[in-house]
Amino acid sequence: MSKYILARENGRSIPQEDKIFGISSRAKAMIAQKGADKVINATIGSLLDDEGRLVVLSSVDRVFKELSPADYADYAPIGGIPSFREAVIKAAFGKHQPGGFIRAVATPGGTGALRNVISNYSEDGDKVLTSDWHWAPYNTIAGEIGRSVETFEFFTEEGKFNSADFKKKVNELLGKQESLVIILNTPAHNPTGYSLTLEDWDSVTEILGDEASVGKAVALVIDAAYIDFAGDEEEYRRFFPKLERLPENVISVIAYSLSKTFTLYGTRCGAMICVAKTEPIAEEFRRVCEYSSRGSWSNSAKVAQVILSRIYGDEKLLKEVDEERAGYRDMLLRRGRAFTEEAGKAGLKTVPFDAGFFVSVPCPDPDAVSASLEKEGVFIVPLAKGLRVSVASISEEKCRRLPALIKKAMDEGK
Ligand code: PLP
């Protein structure tokens, strides 16, 4: 222990190590010691093939290898290169671009978009609303800039989207704050795999159009990190035009990420894309978000911006990328189905699952169950309300074996 504590906590509670990376490194150590066939490492949030190697789209990789130094060595403008801004709007909305005023600002991944929207659309000390099951870094991102997270119950007893609790929490917070940022991670939510249905979206837009929001500044953030791994690309974008119904004081912001969709995780590229009712609100979005980027990371890396621009500038290439991704998406969907089918047979309850990288299992004592599974060579992530299984990182065969192992560990812990 040092005599000094130099770093300032500033209200944050900073752990010794990131929980997920900690578990993951123990899994890797066991693989090195006992062999890969003895270990199920279902902790990783990237898509891996059945042999545990990172899936990289070869069509995207080819574009990467053909770049010239100016494509990656140079600075990009703060808000992104113009061709990227155009391409990323097409990538996000597909054939379902809503009416309204749309602007895109480049960010370092979806994470950058989340950080920037929270910092610019909420006030110091505000609470940001999201579902009780949620990606833990929302808390970190909010906490870093003096905000915190409040949650609504994601599901009813019947396993449906809990619009009543959503409404209650929206109204409570609007009663206390002048501004409200709401984050909905859909489709293929992390950690549950739930996708809001079109009916769920009807409720959300109706609630946010209610009189409770009149006079307040509301930002509805759609964290779309997994949008291309939920199923048919166009089908899963059909909700976008519903955003047109939102009133002038509610701006929609898509937190778009190239990490999963283009397997460009490490290039740190994404965008925040607004759908605003009026042009001044859209222009305000662009100006404020670019200003804020300058003061946090300056410009975003150019490389993936150029890659996306090339892909969207060449119809044949775009088709090739989409088809290659669809093959891997089907592999992922088969894994999710295998897990939920076997969970049904084993009597293991899961949180409502539709698609995506993760399935969650409700569990009263997640830390104890995951610790006992670790001894058996099974690594999953304990969350506040249950266990998160990454079907993205294990084979279909392991997805079939896992539910019975989890059920056994849960029963033994009772
Ligand atoms: N949102 C969710 C729910 C995620 O799981 C992730 C990545 O794991 C992101 C956003 C952002 O990812 P990135 O910053 O790599 O784009």
From TrEMBL:
Its cofactor is pyridoxal 5'-phosphate. The keyword Transport does not apply. InterPro entries: Aminotransferase_I/II_large (IPR004839), Asp_trans (IPR000796), PyrdxlP-dep_Trfase (IPR015424), PyrdxlP-dep_Trfase_major (IPR015421), PyrdxlP-dep_Trfase_small (IPR015422). Keywords: Aminotransferase, Pyridoxal phosphate, Transferase. One of its GO terms (molecular function) is identical protein binding. Residues 38-402 form the Aminotransferase class I/classII large domain. Coiled coil: none annotated. SUPFAM superfamilies: PLP-dependent transferases (SSF53383). It holds the Pfam family Aminotran_1_2. It comes from the Bacteria. One of its GO terms (biological process) is amino acid metabolic process. Homodimer. Belongs to the class-I pyridoxal-phosphate-dependent aminotransferase family. This is Aminotransferase class I/II-fold pyridoxal phosphate-dependent enzyme. It comes from Candidatus Allocopromorpha excrementigallinarum.
